[in-house]
Specification:
Shape: flat
Number of helices: 26
Number of strands: 2
Strand order of the largest sheet: 1-2
Helix content: 55-70%
Order of helices and strands: HHHHHHHHHHHHHHHHHHHHHEEHHHHH
Radius of gyration: 45 Å
Strand content: under 5%
Structural class: mainly alpha
Oligomer: single chain
Largest sheet: 2 strands, antiparallel
């Protein structure tokens, strides 16, 4: 490990700054990390799904439990990329089986639920420590940044869960509205078990897809915490400074050594004699400067800028200024009496009086503001006006491609539906559905718009609080959508049920 080859700046950081560095490292190598993670984990998840098809939840639990084995691959890639030796995808995948050997059983059993897992995983994989040496190393590492590693796991668990539920919600938003209308308890109970298992496996598959993005980030953040702790313990930043200094001096070291050898030879003899002179030599005795002269020279220098900057200030004054501090005048008697009265037993009464005065001021201010801006307030209040009686909105001519005008319907809707059912079931259901829309508008004064959907119509029917009408409308809407959008013909017994339900609600005529 050569610190000078590191691709990041080696220096002590705070715990959260170190985790930010891990996120940046994972982003820099995201393609390699995500691809290698997907190639390793998705086949394992597919194998678990095939073996445990009847237990979808158990598949997710086992896959989650095996994450420490999968995490060793992104840690290997990040440790190599830190010192400029980023492996290729083929090299990383070829190295993964060897990474599983050291202490895999311990990582998947009693160490599996450790909150500091990402922070301590490099001790086993990169340092290769086990037993007492590992325990001693962990005690040293956990003296600092241990709490940050635990918080990283706690936040990671919550973020992972939130993203998983978010993907489920996104999946639900892509479900067509026609399919969503068919989701009721009766249908869920009647659905085959095989269909439910397929749907549950489809939703659970979102979890390994989520880990392709999130898990390398989690491993990188724990690895950066480990690097930061080693930087502080082993003073990597100081070692790098000395190494750079040695590299800078290694080029000029021969020249300095040669200069040290030749300097005694090149020094003139006169300099040597002068340097070896004693305080009694003529060079030191014949000096004109004395101690008194030196003091005067120093004082003269200190009296001029930049050591001393005199400034003249001109101002007006009255009378003579006294340099002596004025004598403190005694406090007036009324002030002493006031303070004595406040400190006496009447303090509560004074506080109550002040509170009353403040509340009165507040009430007065509110009343003054109301009076001052009364005209603006009246402008904001809508004036009552005589409203004309509501005019019945005309029904739209067509909805969902169906003509719902009252004059376009036959006299006996149920009889016409029975005649069309055998040869044209789509036309029969269409006739019954547009007759229902016409009745809802004319008999129940339900406002309908051409842009309304079947779901919105059912919501308005539910507001009418008529249970029979609501059940009939839901049943008819469901089978109309099945044949209109899904091209699924209705069962034979449905004709009698719908026609009897229509006659029970509206009779036989097109209008009442």
């Amino acid at each position: 490990m050569r610190l000078s080859d590191a691709t990041v700046v080696i220096r002590p950081r705070t715990a959260w700054e170190a985790m930010d560095l891990g996120v940046l490292m994972s982003q820099q190598h995201r393609r390699l990390l995500m691809t290698s993670w997907a190639i390793v984990t998705l086949p394992v998840y597919a194998l678990l799904t095939v073996l445990l098809w009847e237990w979808p939840s158990l598949v997710v639990i086992l896959f989650w439990w095996l994450k420490p084995a999968f995490d060793r691959l992104p840690l290997y890639i990040l440790s190599k990329a830190l010192f400029g030796e980023t492996p290729t995808l083929k090299q990383a995948l070829r190295q993964w089986p060897a990474l599983l050997k050291p202490q895999l059983l311990a990582s998947l059993t009693w160490r599996r639920l450790s909150l500091s897992r990402s922070f301590l995983m490099p001790v086993v994989q990169l340092e290769g420590l086990a037993g007492a040496a590992r325990e001693q190393r962990l005690r040293v590492l956990l003296q600092r940044n241990g709490g940050a590693a635990q918080w990283l796991t706690v936040i990671g668990v919550h973020l992972e869960s939130a993203l998983w539920f978010g993907l489920m919600a996104l999946f639900y938003l892509f479900v067509p509205q026609q399919v969503e209308l068919e989701w009721d308890w009766q249908m869920l109970i009647a659905t085959s078990e095989h269909t439910v298992l397929r749907f549950e496996h489809l939703v659970n598959f979102l979890y390994p897809l989520l880990l392709i993005v999130w898990e390398p980030i989690y491993v990188a953040a724990g690895f950066s915490l480990y690097l930061n702790r080693r930087t502080i313990l082993e003073a990597w930043d100081i070692e790098l400074v000395f190494r750079r200094l040695r590299q800078r001096l290694s080029g000029v070291a021969p020249a300095l050594l040669l200069l040290a050898v030749l300097l005694p030879v090149l020094v003139p003899p006169a300099w040597a004699d002068e340097d070896s002179s004693t305080p009694e030599s003529p060079r030191l005795l014949n000096q004109p400067l004395t101690s008194e002269a030196s003091r005067d020279s120093i004082k003269a220098i200190l009296q001029v800028p930049p050591f001393k900057n005199p400034e003249t200030i001109t101002r007006y004054r009255f009378g003579k200024e006294s340099t002596e501090s004025p004598e403190t005048e005694p406090a007036p008697g009324w002030l002493k009496a006031l303070f004595n009265w406040i400190g006496s037993q009447r303090f509560d009464a004074a506080a109550t009086l002040i509170q009353v005065i403040l509340w009165a001021c507040l009430a007065g201010a509110i009343a003054w503001l109301a009076w001052r801006y009364r005209e603006q307030a009246q402008a904001l209040v809508p004036r009552r006006s005589t409203r004309l009686p509501a005019v019945e909105q005309p029904a739209p001519a067509r909805m969902f491609g169906l003509d719902i005008r009252q004059e376009s319907l036959p006299e006996d809707v149920a009889a016409s539906v029975e005649q069309l059912w055998a040869t044209h079931p789509r036309d029969a259901l269409g006739l019954l559905y547009r007759a229902l829309l016409s009745r809802l508008h004319h008999d129940f004064n339900m406002p309908l718009k051409p842009a309304d959907t079947e779901g919105q119509v059912l919501q308005r029917v539910e507001r009418l609080q008529q249970q029979d009408l609501l059940v009939f409308s839901k049943d008819l809407t469901l089978h109309w959508q099945n044949i209109a959008y899904g091209h699924r013909p209705p069962p034979a017994h449905l004709q009698r049920e719908l026609c009897d339900g229509w006659r029970g609600l509206f009779g036989s005529g097109a209008s009442r």
